[in-house]
Design a protein that fits this description.
With 391 residues, the protein is an alpha+beta fold. It has 3 domains: 110 residues, no CATH class; 83 residues, no CATH class; 131 residues. 33% of the residues lie in helices and 21% in strands. The strands form 3 sheets. A 5-stranded antiparallel β-sheet has the order 1-2-3-4-5. A hairpin with a 2-residue loop joins strand 8 and strand 9. The N and C termini lie far apart (113 Å).
Length: 391
């Protein structure tokens, strides 16, 4: 019994002494470890903000910042480094951006991504020395639209966050929200229900035309201006006399457009994807196509195919250039292939020709959808050649 008591006392004494030694050692090493960790963070952050010193983590929960911002660091000279996570071709696209005290980007780099085209490795160099007002002037790389557009958007989020952390205010709306607000302001009577007009020819001075689903009028986009007109053509938005003339000419062009349906039953060599074709008075064409995406060519026991094609409407010039493209119907896999109905996807084909129509950003995780869509667009150029021959 006495031996057991002695053993307990010995073990207790050893534990107490060990704890004291560990505490003493920790007191000695903790500052050293913290200093080493701080130095490592400092080294990492100076990659995008070379002149930054003494970085300190910012509690971003105290501010209303863009959702892409996951971390922020201030430095003693007034600069900041922001870490953003966004979605380009795929999710998990992580970017670091350094901004100096004057609100100028001094460096940007991707530290993690699943992008496949490689542009995220060097695109940050294009954004160096840019301010918030300059970002939109940086070119989006053809063939990597989603990757580079997401990169630019993330850098704008960082620059807006810089403004907010310095006590200012910034517009944090998404591009979709900004578009919706602009359309609603220009034509409130539409009650937020708009669709893009598939134009039959390029109209001088007009970038895009939206029409009210309820036929309340149109919204004409000229540069950054959204100008509404009612169903009678009255201009509802204050604008310049030059823009009023451009809009009136555009309206007259819209009113003159007329097309007639082409009988495809006698054209045995017409691609089977072409369901209907129309020829406008100006010689241009409108085609309705059925694309065989995942709904036709895919399907397994976990992700059954719908058995339905993607329905696409394309207007193209008689010279073989796509004017506008739009997805009318689709039943592809939700949240994956269904992205073919997003304007950011189908509008990539606007302005494309037979030589470059494949140079678009694919839908992440939806190879069958993307390939089926592109195959149908390729048939547009074949169809135009056939239709011109018949004419």
């Amino acid at each position: 019994m006495k031996n057991n008591i002695k053993s307990v006392i010995s073990l207790t004494a050893i534990c107490i002494v060990t704890s004291i030694l560990l505490a003493f050692t920790n007191n000695l090493t903790a500052p050293i470890i913290a200093k080493q960790e701080a130095a490592a963070v400092n080294d990492a952050l100076t990659v995008v903000l070379p002149n930054g010193e003494d970085f300190q983590s910012v509690d971003i929960t105290k501010y209303t910042l863009p959702s892409t911002i996951t971390e922020a660091y201030s430095e003693k000279n007034g600069g900041y480094v922001f870490k953003m996570e966004t979605t380009g071709y795929d999710v998990g696209f992580v970017i670091l951006c350094g901004i100096d005290k004057d609100g100028v980007v001094k460096g940007a780099t991707s530290i993690s991504s699943k992008e496949t085209l490689g542009y995220e490795k060097s695109y940050g160099d294009e954004l160096k020395d840019k301010t918030l007002g300059d970002i939109d002037t940086v070119a989006t790389v053809a063939g990597a639209t989603k990757t580079t557009a997401a990169y630019k958007s993330a850098i704008k989020d960082a620059l807006n966050s810089f403004v907010i952390l310095n006590g200012g205010t910034a517009d944090l709306r998404s591009e979709e929200e900004i578009l919706a607000d602009n359309l609603n302001t220009a034509l409130p009577e539409a009650n937020g229900e708009f669709e893009i007009v598939l134009i039959l020819e390029e109209i001088n001075g007009i970038d895009t035309i939206y029409k009210s689903v309820k036929n309340n009028g149109f919204v004409f986009v000229i540069g950054e201006e959204f100008i509404g007109t009612d169903s009678d053509g009255n201009i509802l938005t204050e604008t310049s006399e030059t823009n009023k003339t451009i809009i009136e000419n555009a309206r007259q062009t819209l009113l003159k457009w007329a097309d007639s349906q082409i009988d495809l039953t006698k054209l045995t060599d017409m691609p089977t994807s072409v369901e209907a074709a129309y020829k406008a008075d100006n010689g241009n064409y409108t085609l309705i196509l059925h694309a065989a995406g995942y709904g036709i060519n895919g399907g397994d026991k976990y992700h059954p195919a719908s058995g339905e094609p993607i329905v696409i409407k394309v207007t193209a010039s008689k010279d073989g250039k796509i004017i506008t493209c739009k997805t009318l119907e689709q039943n592809e896999t939700a949240n994956i292939g269904s992205a073919c109905a997003d304007e950011s996807f189908y509008s990539q084909f606007n302005g494309k020709t037979e030589n470059d129509y494949t140079e678009i950003d694919a839908i992440s995780g939806a190879t069958l959808t993307t390939d089926g869509y592109k195959n149908a667009i390729g048939d547009v150029f074949t169809a135009i050649k056939i239709l011109k021959g018949v004419s």
